[in-house]
Amino acid sequence: MRARHTPRxxxxxxxxxxxVPQAVAEFRRFARDKALILACVDIAxxxxxxxxxxxxxxVFGGDGTLICAARVLSxxxxxxxxxNLGKLGYLAExxxxxxxxxxxxxxxxxxxxxRRMMLACQLLPGSHSRRGRSDRAGKxxxxxxxxxxxxxxxxxxxxxxxxxxCLDGHRVARCISDGLxxxxxxxxxxxxxxxxxxxxxxxxxxxVVTPICPHSLSFRPIVIDASRVVEIRGVRVxxxxxxxxxxxxxxxxxxxxxxxxxxxxxxxxxVNNPMRNPWDTLATRLHWAEMPKYAQPR
Length: 298
Known about the structure:
This protein has helices at residues 20-31, 63-73, 96-107, 191-194, 278-286; strands spanning 8-13, 36-42, 56-61, 80-84, 113-124, 142-146, 149-153, 161-167, 170-177, 179-183, 206-212, 222-225, 230-236, 242-245, 249-252, 258-271. It is of the alpha+beta class. The strands form 3 sheets. It has a 6-stranded antiparallel sheet with strand order 6-5-16-13-8-9, with helices on one face. A 6-stranded antiparallel sheet has the order 12-11-10-7-14-15, with no helix packed on it. Strand 1, helix 1 and strand 2 (36-42) form a beta-alpha-beta unit.
């Protein structure tokens, strides 16, 4: 009879958060006879070599910590269990008591692991050809994966910017606004939602293009197939205009530079909380479809 495999886990966390060290210590005591803990490190440290041998990564912090972890874990295809110790915790689905209650099922592979698409963002310097295709006039200035979104923001001196949008090499629109967001389904509930964009199911394969405070009321958010290649050229920009990836990686966007965005082969694997469904999360974390608070009759 084959011996049962002992689950191997790595613990990652934002140990600068005051609540993280205590929560990690509590979890280690709980898990020490249930799994083999290969490493326990701060998310800002160099990724441990043990990641290549682990079955799951348990990440303590908030959504920002989870997004940071996704950059490291997605190439290795390691499922992530997110423990929310932050403010919102939309991606980090578990509380510590919920993880304890579901730990045996997760380690036995009886809890679903969702595959989330990611974006590849490249920033290419000009020039720009007349056919709408960007030409590499130099080295790529930025090359980073995105879990939530890629966005361009006007920046100082805070005049509106003009951006040209191309899909698969074809010019489709110009946007005069405070910026533009290209979001994954995962990121549709983040900056995209605040800017008036739609909510997409996390498992969907699509992108949302959402303007930030456009000058035209007719420029509405649009959902496009994930197979498309989006290129955004800076027609008129400010000195402080920049492109940001998940709000964590940022680079200046100069005149005529092109931001190229496409679906990457990387996938972010996240363990779903079996005690909740996506609609529960929308309702409890974002108060979606909450009923009006009517006055009580006297």
